[in-house]
Amino acid sequence: MAHNTSMEEFEALLNESLDIDTPSEGSVVKGRVIAIEAGQAIIDVGYKMEGRVDLKEFANPGETAEIQVGDEVEVYLDRVENARGEAVISRDKARREAAWDRLEKAYADEQRVEGAIFGRVKGGFTVDLGGAVAFLPGSQVDVRPVRDAGPLMGMKQPFQILKMDRRRGNIVVSRRAILEESRAEQRAEVISQIEEGQAVDGVVKNITEYGAFVDLGGVDGLLHVTDMAWRRVNHPSEIVSIGETVKVQIVKINKETHRISLGMKQLQADPWDAVEANFPLGSVHQGRVTNITDYGAFVELEPGVEGLVHVSEMSWTKKNVHPGKIVSTSQEVDVMVLEIDSAKRRVSLGLKQTQRNPWEVFAETHPSGTPVEGEVKNITEFGLFIGLENDIDGMVHLSDISWDQRGEEAIQNFRKGDMVKAVVTEVDVDKERISLSIKALDDSFTEVVDGVKRGSIVTVVVTAIEDGGIEVEYEGMKSFIRRSDLSRDRSEQRPDRFSVGDKVDVRVTNVDPKTRRLGLSIKAREIAEEKEAVEQYGSSDSGASLGDILGAALKGDEK
Description:
ribosomal protein, repeat, 5-stranded antiparallel beta sheet, CATH 2.40.50.140, rod-shaped, structural constituent of ribosome, alpha+beta, 30 strands, 9 helices, 30S ribosomal protein S1, 6 domains
């Protein structure tokens, strides 16, 4: 009985010894290098088992293996024995298992891990984390896009594990997170040493459309294009260049986002402080056109001081023209200061005010009655617009086109581009209007009526008979005698008692040069003759009849 017990104890101790001495497959075991041959290390892993491992598995990517006979190493036991009777072992797998244990702990503790970039793959790079291979996405290499990753290859550096899955063997790391954390610490330190209003030196690192980023010694600040100079800057490259050292002022510090706003113009005198003294109202200055918009043009009076010439102040004559048709960018122009608003940093300028009002000039050089000649620019329902000197127009109203035709008929004789002559009748400078007359060129009326005045007796020829009176002609000039003026006697006020071609003596009752009309009346002539006869030959008080008086007057005429 005792013998059986001792045998059982011996078997148990033997099995226990075998379990301890014989390593299990799929585990990491320690072994000793007993030989190196044909690029491989022969390793004794105990229990009379040996295996072979390529020397490259003992080296880091890009490095040479440093291993010697007698070195103790850890390897991964895949199988106890292969077809050749050797143990199947791997240094890489051993390192990977150890690395995964270490990396999982670092991931759980949110600690950095050390590794080296050793290869490029689609979308990023591969990183050796001391036995485990991780993926480094291209977006996680640096805080800014990296064009050349060559200098980073094979260099030991810290990484942050973003994600890992041991079952699938996936690890994703970030170098950018480390840099951002480092920069954040550096920013915090730099920001703690600067304050708003302070002037510091910095190096221009990058230039964009809206400004430049300036390195202040570990932290970047934005120098916006509007803070580079008091004058208008079209692009930051006009002021700064990459790599240039510049002096800037700390304009604003955002403690939460650690963003720093910088300025260069703040270190210079503000030109607006002396605008009112340097550019008094009504003064004329030469400036340069810097920008043209639909509503006007901006003119630089001096660096940092710009004024707006509104489209309404650009030309006396071009009212509905785009400013770009009047001035061009970079053109030197003379302008007058019209208004200054220092609070809003605005100056209103005038371009046309530097030239004389063309209507004033025209009024001085073309008094009423001056003949002019010009091209028909436009034809409207109320008259003709004639182009005159200095790009101004004059208007011939319908009523001033012809003496003989109605305005609507007379205007049909004109076309755009026709050259016409006219006479200035009125110039209204305030309303910018010039009135012209074409019919005033015809002074035949003056020649015809020369010597004829109110009360004169003239002989006319009947040219037409109408119900309302008769049309007559005097020296080629037409006039109309109304029915009521055909006779002193109402019974004789009949147009039909006249015939075309009859010659009739009439009295001139009115001479109107403006309308070129003679007022004529037979009735007025008869009344005048009666009055004269009464004065010469008697009166109604003497008892003589009108017939007697007229008879006596006729006899006196016969003598």
